[in-house]
């Protein structure tokens, strides 16, 4: 029971940082550095594995911040994926590397990393983040049907507006104005009244009418 509560606390931390920090790559770096550098260790064997995975993640964050050789970072990621595939630390590390590859324009590599997360991590918040980023990555490659499919992933209610808005972006790229407006309006209806993204979303809708 304690282990379950501890894991839920870590997922709640993940959700807090994602919702409060704007750009997704900074979200990942901040979550990794602030969340898992202070990781509270469970009891028993699982605790040991989580601690080891968190330590590797911390090393990766440090290397990324220092702009070290990407090959070294990729080697650390391969170690995590091989030895700790179920760890949230591994999911975060994979998302972080996917962000780097995306920013470098290596969309096919980013796509592979994001698919790995979706196949190996079941935490709803991690699934939502990976699915949305996969949709954006596929959009950049003009793989529109695959992008829509990724964005149809079932997510928690808090993430539905983000998925719907991204789906609208895909429809815009396809010149499917009607579908885009429907997605944007659905996203707006699910978005809190105080959300900072409402104004931009409304602008997207107005530009299509």
What proportion of the residues is helical, as a percent range? over 70%
Shape: elongated
Query: Average pLDDT across residues?
Result: 80
Report the major sheet: none
In short:
This protein has 209 residues and is mainly alpha-helical. It is built from eleven helices and no strands.
Description:
The protein is an all-alpha fold and 209 residues long. It has eleven helices and no strands. It has helices spanning 2-20, 24-36, 45-65, 70-83, 88-103, 107-120, 124-140, 144-151, 160-173, 177-190, 198-208. Helix 2 packs across helix 3, helix 2 (24-36) packs antiparallel against helix 5 and helix 3 runs parallel beside helix 5. The longest helix has 21 residues, at 45-65. The termini are far apart.
Furnish the topology, listing elements before pairings.
Elements: H1 2-20, H2 24-36, H3 45-65, H4 70-83, H5 88-103, H6 107-120, H7 124-140, H8 144-151, H9 160-173, H10 177-190, H11 198-208
Give the tags:
209 residues; mainly alpha; 77% helix; 0% strand
């Amino acid at each position: 029971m304690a282990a379950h509560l501890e894991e839920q606390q870590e997922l709640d931390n993940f959700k807090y940082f994602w919702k409060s920090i704007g750009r997704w790559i900074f979200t990942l770096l901040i979550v990794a550095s602030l969340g898992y550098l202070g990781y509270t260790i469970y009891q028993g064997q699982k605790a040991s594995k989580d601690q080891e995975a968190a330590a590797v993640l911390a090393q990766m964050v440090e290397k990324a911040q220092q702009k070290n050789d990407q090959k070294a970072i990729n080697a650390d990621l391969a170690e995590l994926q091989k030895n700790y595939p179920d760890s949230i630390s591994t999911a975060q590390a994979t998302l972080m590397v996917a962000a780097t590859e995306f920013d470098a324009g290596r969309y096919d590599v980013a796509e592979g990393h994001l698919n790995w997360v979706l196949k190996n991590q079941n935490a709803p918040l991690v699934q939502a983040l990976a699915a949305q980023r996969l949709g954006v990555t596929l959009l950049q490659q003009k793989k529109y049907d695959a992008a829509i499919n990724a964005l149809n992933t079932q997510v928690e209610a808090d993430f539905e507006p983000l998925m719907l808005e991204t789906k609208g972006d895909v429809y815009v790229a396809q010149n499917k104005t009607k579908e885009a407006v429907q997605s944007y309006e659905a996203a707006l209806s699910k978005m809190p009244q105080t959300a900072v993204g409402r104004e931009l979303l409304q602008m997207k809708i107005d530009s299509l009418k």
